[in-house]
Give the backbone structure.
Amino acid sequence: MKVVWRLAEASVRDVYETVRERRPVAYTTVMTMLNTLETKGYLKKTLHGRAYRYRPAVPEQRVVREMVREFVGRVFDGASGSLLAHLVKGSVLSQKEREELRRLIGEDR
């Protein structure tokens, strides 16, 4: 999804070449993943010549929000504070990220 969001529209070959720059992947794996995402409603495809072109059907922020909500529900029993505590205590956040978190919390007051 990240590749398609970034490119706005992409063929299987486009996604394959982009992903392959970072790690080895089979062309058929990319094709299967794009077809699965299209079946689930995350992508739309149109036929251009002999190849399909895929474009996002759902905005990135909406998908991220839904995935985070699902993750927090499954792993932290719905307690967002537990996730934040884990991130802060586990030193996963950089100093800059901690300052941004403080700023966001301050805006909520």
